Amino acid sequence: HFHDCFVQGCDGSVLISSNPGSKELPEKVTEDNRDIPADAYDVIEKAKAMVERTCPGVVSCADILAIAARDYLHLAGGPYYPVKKGRWDGKQKPMASLVYSNIPHANSTIDDLIKLFSSKGLTLNDLVVLSGAHTLG
To answer: Which end of the chain has fewer beta carbons closer than 10 Å to its terminal beta carbon, N or C?
Structure first.
């Protein structure tokens, strides 16, 4: 969810694979996202398929991703928080070229992190909380 929201907004674009013959690489294949385990994508796809069988065309992949992230954090002992539903899946083509400048890196300074989080409308407290939650992911 973190890797999705920080790039083009919480639009599910990190879930999208490239089309055969496409010259633009999708977000999910970048160096910054390669450590996301394949089974994480599988869980989202299975949840989406189950929801689609009951409510076809109603729930977005972006909502599934947000709910799954919230529930995983809660099951790991973290807080349960409300998730607004009604997200739209991205209409923009997911682009690998947008990932690097929008994701924190191991060598980021605290000033780099504050600037990045601030550019997303987030506070220093958000930085600390999301960094800790990211460790669980």
So the answer is: C
Tens of pLDDT, residue by residue over 11-69, are 999 998 877 777 788 898 899 998 888 898 999 999 999 999 998 988 999 999 999 98
Question: Is 11 within any annotated ligand binding site?
Answer: yes
105 in active site: no
Q: Which DSSP string do the residues of 63-102 spell out, in sequence order?
A: HHHHHHHHHHHHHTT--------------SPP-GGGTGGG
Domain range enclosing 131 = 104-136
Q: 7 among the known binding-site residues?
A: yes
pTM of the model: 0.80
Q: How many domains does the chain have?
A: 2
